[in-house]
Task: structure prediction
Amino acid sequence: MEVKEVLQVKESALYAVHPDSPLSEAVIMMAENDIGSVIVMEGGKLAGMLTFREVLAILAKRQTERRVGPTPPIAEILVIEAMDRNPPTTNLGMDVDELRRIMVDTHTRYVPVMEGDTILGVVSFHDVAKAVLEERNMENKLLKAYIKDWPSP
Result:
């Protein structure tokens, strides 16, 4: 199975923010749309990814800094301060097993799918698991039908 097949079974909406956007706007977008990541775009190109992991990390960092001085509210934190500037990416032809290995090795739950400089979508660990499960279920049904129709000796 290839990444293009995973993209076919998921919602195609892309959610993006600018690096200079307030982190609070990105968090609101993620919460309102029940998504775990947004792409960060600048000049029509991928500038990074922002996931709930980066949000939690910057909030924890700011809370730790609070011990030595006042902590700015989340509305004053910019996306660029929290985002992953160099997320792993994939392409339509990558094998899903290779993508899973990359996701596991880099502890990444969301991977942008690229074609050159163009972002085609974002594949999540959940999307990959769902696509693999559906493929396995179809294979099982086909194998069971084949065995059921096995000719008698």
In short: The chain has a mean pLDDT of 87. The chain has one domain: 3-148. The first helix runs from residue 3 to 8.
